[in-house]
Amino acid sequence: MVLPPVAERHHHRKVSTMPRRKDMRIGELARTTNVPVRMLRYYEEQGLITPRRLDNGYREYDSSLVARVRTIRGLLDSGIPTRIIAEMLPCLSDPRQTLVADSNPKLRALLVEQCDKMTERMTFLEQNRDALAQYIDEMDKAGGSRPEPRST
Question: 44, 52, 116, 133 - which has most CB atoms within 10 Å?
Answer without folding.
Answer: 44
